[in-house]
Predict the structure of NADH-ubiquinone oxidoreductase chain 3.
Amino acid sequence: MNLIMSSVATTALISLILALIAFWLPSLNPDNEKLSPYECGFDPLGSARLPFSLRFFLVAILFLLFDLEIALLLPLPWGNQLLTPLSTLLWATIILILLTLGLIYEWFQGGLEWAE
């Protein structure tokens, strides 16, 4: 049995054991205190379901997008040691162009302007 099959079998066995243990463990009964929102030990002052600003969500998504760009481009210096460094630079250029076009689109749509 090769290494990959043994790793898959071990992972499947551990997952099955953990699922069976979770199935047999007693379920906890939630009470009113456990279901209430927590605000630093105090009773909540208002509703915990207040509307969330879409601007914060957009900024968070844009941050994750450009953070992913950095994570994809970090191993780029080691790409020159591959057999085809030109293809590595080509893929990096394509990623940068796509993300730059997305940023320009968001800018022209007004998604980056905070105040209206």
Q: What stands out?
A: The chain has one domain: 3-109. The CA atoms of residues 53 and 59 lie 10 Å apart. The radius of gyration is 24 Å.
